[in-house]
Every structure is written in C-alpha cells, then in structure tokens.
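User: Fold this, then the next.

Assistant: Folding the first:
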Amino acid sequence: MTVSRIALYAFAESGIFAVEFFVRLQLLIFYTDRLGVESYLASVAAGIALTWDAFIDPFVGAFSDRFRSRWGNRKPFLVVGALVIAPSLLWLFSPYTAGGATLLFAQLLFASLLLNTGITLVTVPHAAISAELTSDAQLRVRVFATRLLFANIGLIIGLLMPALSENQSIVAAAIGVFCLFAVFTCAATLKIASAPATHKPSGLIADFRAALSNRFFVWLFVAGFLAYIGVAINSTLARYYYDHFLKLNEKQFALVLIVFIIIWSLSVVLWVKLADKYGKDKPATFGIIALGLMTMLCYPLFPQNSVAGPVAAAIAGGIFTGCILLFDSYVADAADDDFARSGERREGLYFGVWKFGIKASRGVAVMLSGVLLWAIGYRAGAKPDDAVAFRIALLFGPLVGSIFVLSGIVFYRFAAPRRGGA
C-alpha cells in the first residue's frame, strides 16, 4: 500500500473535521451570544440532532456492509453525504432571524438533524474502509495515524476560517465547499469496489448480537464513550472558558488551538513508535490518564489575560491526545476478531456502533454542557461575573479531566485483558 493511496483516502477526514470542529466551537455560542437563544434551548436542539446522528450510525454501517452497486458498497454513501452536508451547514449559520426564538430553535434543530445525517453517511462507511485497506497491525496503525493527520488539517481549517471573516454564512459556505472537494477526491480515487462477500450472511439483529457478544469491543465502547464525553464537553466549553475566564482575545485563542493541533499532529509519530515497541495497551492507557490529570490540575489555575499557561497546556495536551489513534485502531481489531470467529465481514457495523458511541457521547455532552452552564449561573447575552467564570473553569478542568481518568481505568481494567478473545 503506497503512501499516496493512504493519503488520498485520509483526505476526506480534513473536510469532515473542518465542518465538525467549526460547528463544535461556534454553534452554541453563535446561537446564545449572537442570536439570543438561551443556552439550555440551544444545547437541547443540538443534542437532539447529535443523538439522532448517533442512533443511525450502526444502521448506516450495517447497510453499507451489504450494499452493492457499480461504484462499490461505500462510495455512494460518501458522495450523497457530502452533498447533504454543504447546504445544511450553510442553513445552520444563515437562519431566518425575524421569526423569534421559537423559529430559531426549530431551524437549529432541523438544520442540525440534516447536517448530522450527512456526516453519518460519510464518516461511518469511510471509517469502515480503513479496516478493509489492510489487515497488517502495524500498517493499520499508520493508516489511522494518517487519518488523524488529515483530520487535524481539517481542525486548523475549521479554526482559522472564522478568524478570516466575521460573517458566519460566508465561513459556513467556504467550509462546506472544502468538505465537498475533500470527500469527492477520496471517493474518486478509492480503489476498493466492494467489501468481500461473506459466505454466511446474517440479518441486522444477528449482527448487533454478534457485536454485543464481543466483550473486548463492549468494554472498549464504554471507555471510548466516557473519553468522548470529556472531549465534547471540552470542545463545547472552550469558547466560554477562554472568553470569560481567561479573557483571551480571538488571536490568543487561535494561537492556543493552533499549537495544540500542530503538537497533536506531530505526536502521531510518537504514538506509532510506542505502539511498535510496547504494543498498544499501555501507551493508550498512559496517554488518556495523563491527559486527564493534566486537565484536572492546570486549567483552573491559569491567570487571566496570559497565554503562556494555556500554550504550555496545549503542548502537553497535544502530546497526550495523540493516543486517541490507538483507541480508534482497536475497532478494526475487534472486527477482525469477529471475522475470525464468524467468517463474516462486519466492519461497517463495528465502526457504526463505535461512531454511535462517539456521537451519542457528544449529544449527552452538549446537552449536559448547556444545563451545567445554566446551573452555575450563566445567562445568554449577560457577561458572567468572576464567580460564574471560575465555575466555568471548574467544568472545563476538573470535571473533564476526571472523565478522562475514568475512561483510562475502564479501558485498562476491563477492555485490554479481553483483547483477542470474545
């Protein structure tokens, strides 16, 4: 497998992550601070859409396993999904504002549902392809590392584009077009036609039962669900923490995130080397627990109007966050184990269930973030006082960090011992 082939496959991640990161950072604060929608209402609408997105993931994955066409079983999903993402993203950030809060809430809900449906149609089949590209364990880690590199390029695009224009409609349109280009490039150059046919096809219910009987995958799912709740709360509260607690300006905020993303991207080399030397279990556990401890201890202590502490944390956090590529590669291992036992190819199902966990955790986290902001005294359109700002820092630091630590404990105690068996 050539480097160029892996890179063209992974390029789609740039488009998807540009969309997702832009939405994660800007959506909630756009509707609360610019459009005046209360945080709990905005978070409920976004959370419902993310929950729907999560719910359909396993079904899209299982359907793509069985789908057959002249273009293969995965490519049509990529193309249709990209064609849905671009207009729904534009609608999300160009709502009709003259109809009041109720109409804004409805538009936020339905545009988010449409956007997340398109994202599912791309991400689940695309992730399943990663397991079909190679069965070599070391090469597979490199495939996931390349995906992470291109995903981080998308993160940078999703971060920098809002800094180039204050018009969110223009930014949304530009990111949507880039997503179309990235996904179409992947689909056009993809050489895989269809997943290998299985000799003993089963039904969807039987497929779900098989996934649930894989004890390693079940505990991996639990650990991943917890970790991504922490990631989603962190992303959702980032603007609130940096704007209201640290009082950083837009350029300082962008600097922190760019440093984080660059270090995160570079760290994939470290995690690939660690996996080659020590296996994946210990590095994955160390990375997620170290990330949790750093998050718990640092963020509430940084002084206001200073960027030095956040940049240092971005460097350390970027290194530790790189371990996430190891967790994603475990899903392909779980699918391989299932194939060894059943003789059936169910990569789409396994990645669909995994994506379900990630997106369900985001839905839970977005709704939880909005409710917690309301509970600590944050109100839309009102500048929070110092007490409320410090409570935001506690949510952003100790709460998120403790979730990461719990995820690492669950993985090492319950998932890792079961890898390679049912």
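Now the next one, as you asked:
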Amino acid sequence: MGAARAVPAGQLPLPPVLPAAAAALLDQAHRGLAEAAAAPDPRDRYATAHLSALRAAAGVLAARTRPEGGRRRPRSAWVLLGQVAPELGEWATFFAAGAAKRAAAEAGLSHAVTEREADDLVRDARGFLAVVESMFGSLSEPPRYPRPYVVPPRR
C-alpha cells in the first residue's frame, strides 16, 4: 500500500455516498466472503476470508485518506487502518495477527489452518465488514456497488 495521509476529523467527513473506489472494494469484500463460505478446503476458506477483510479495510482507507506526494516506504494496510480509523484498531490487530497464517494457507501447507479456524475467520470477516459498512451508514440489504458518486467541487 502506498503512502497516504489521514485527513483530520472534521476536515473530510465520510461522504453520504461512498467514493467509487471504496464502494468497489466493499463489493469485492462481499463477493470474496461468498466465495470463502463456499470453499470446501479450509485453507482456501481462511485465505479468501482474510483477503475479504483486507479489501474492507482498504475501502475504509480509500474513503478516509488522500494520497501523499513523494515516495514513502509501503506500510501494512492493517497498520494504516489503526491510524486512520482508531475505532477499528482491535480489528486491525486481529487481522494483522492472521496474516502469516493466511500466507501459510495460500502456500498450501497442509496443517496451516483447521476447519474451525477457517469457519471462525469467515464469521469474523463478515462481522468486520458489517462494522465497516455501518461506518458508512446503514446498509440494510446487500449493497449494489458501485453506487453513483459525484465529487463535490473544490472551494
């Protein structure tokens, strides 16, 4: 993830309609969770659920940050999420802790994750996505992204 600058609270409130990039990432997270839930192999379920959570986190970053000029060392999306959205800090810590397990599952290591760990992560990723969506306003039905978004003129 490239460099991004958090926008102080009050300077850039979340728009009533999601920016297109954030909406697309949340849509990808939903599709990934559906794929994860249907995956018969627990390694695939775990890895796909973790990536879905990562896409939801990226959606928050897309809505709450602006790119910074200059070159900076890439940072973990989970680290950035904790800085940009402190209210999601515990979630960020939780999913960051599972990154190595996801990598092992993606590598196909036979004992990378158990059935229960995979099922638990699918459930946890769903919960995380629901929390993220609640930050953007209530979504009572599955979202139909991308939603139209009009960028307000700069003043």
